[in-house]
């Protein structure tokens, strides 16, 4: 169920991405200026979407993009045999609404309750045409989304479960970390079966991979949804990918 928010002033549009060009700061950073945030907010609708709600379906005519302010959204394809293939998870600071020829290319569903700015596509297009810095910010974000898609493809092509899981954890570190140091503790936003679906594994394989990472002293599970990062180098050693830069390079 969608609803307008009573406390709209608590939220502002925000787009986060790692820089494209060489810089001293390598982690995800805010791309919008205060003026751009105010302009986008003026032309959008702040909505709350309950958990488990389909925001749009694959093949549906595209009218909006969403800037996530709070919560988590998954996008996926339904395969002919009826199974799902998760293509991405979107976090606060992300843009939702990938389209082609005016139609959404996947189905989007909320994993957690979501607060998002619903922006008409035509409005965002006009704002970008009139603001070269906003255009550059959107391009930077698209570049990051492309990199994430490539990493996901390579990640699930790895033969064993532990490298896939290690790569997934390292990716979460780039989202929740910074340029100074990786997070000492990581709150997993997904249940075990959701991680398995994203990584193309069974839930049992993910459980065994967690056990292997833990027995190697790379991580420690505090709760089913909370892990401690004990040894970042060991965690990197399991992954065949270099996920991001900065704290993970």
TrEMBL record:
* GO MF, any single term: DNA-binding transcription factor activity
Ranges for domain HTH crp-type: 159-233
List the protein's name. Answer: HTH crp-type domain-containing protein
Q: Which InterPro entries match?
A: cNMP-bd_dom, cNMP-bd_dom_sf, Env_Response_Regulators, HTH_CRP, RmlC-like_jellyroll, Tscrpt_reg_HTH_Crp-type_CS, WH-like_DNA-bd_sf, WH_DNA-bd_sf
The alphabetized UniProt keywords are: DNA-binding, Transcription, Transcription regulation
Q: Which domain of life is it from?
A: Bacteria
Please indicate if the UniProt record lists Acetylation as a keyword: no
Instruction: Provide GO CC annotations from the record.
Output: cytosol
Q: Which organism is it from?
A: Halotalea alkalilenta
> Could you list the residue ranges that cross the membrane?
none
UniProt cross-references to SMART domains, sorted A to Z: cNMP, HTH_CRP
Which SUPFAM superfamilies does its entry note?
A: cAMP-binding domain-like, Winged helix' DNA-binding domain
Say if the entry is tagged with keyword ATP-binding.
no
> Which Pfam families does the record match to this protein?
cNMP_binding, HTH_Crp_2
């Amino acid at each position: 169920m969608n609803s307008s928010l009573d406390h709209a002033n608590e939220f502002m549009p925000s787009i986060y991405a790692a820089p494209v060009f060489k810089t001293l700061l390598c982690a995800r950073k805010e791309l919008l200026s205060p003026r751009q945030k105010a302009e986008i907010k003026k032309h959008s609708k702040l909505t709350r979407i309950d958990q488990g709600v389909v925001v749009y379906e694959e093949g549906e005519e595209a009218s909006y993009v969403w800037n996530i302010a709070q919560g988590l959204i998954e996008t996926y394809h339904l395969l002919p045999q009826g199974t799902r293939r998760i293509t991405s998870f979107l976090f606060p600071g992300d843009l939702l609404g990938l389209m082609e020829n005016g139609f959404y290319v996947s189905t989007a569903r909320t994993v957690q309750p979501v607060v998002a700015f619903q922006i008409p596509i035509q409005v965002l297009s006009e704002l970008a045409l009139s603001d070269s810095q906003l255009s550059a910010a959107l391009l930077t974000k698209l570049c990051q989304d492309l990199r994430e898609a490539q990493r996901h493809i390579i990640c699930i092509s790895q033969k064993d479960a532990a490298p896939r899981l290690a790569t997934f954890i390292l990716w979460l570190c780039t989202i929740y970390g910074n340029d100074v140091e990786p997070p000492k503790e990581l709150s997993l936003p997904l249940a075990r079966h959701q991680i398995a679906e994203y990584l193309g594994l069974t839930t049992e394989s993910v459980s065994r991979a967690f056990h292997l990472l833990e027995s190697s002293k790379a991580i420690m599970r505090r709760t089913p949804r909370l892990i401690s990062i004990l040894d970042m180098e060991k965690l990197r050693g399991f992954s065949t990918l270099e996920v991001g830069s900065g704290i993970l390079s």
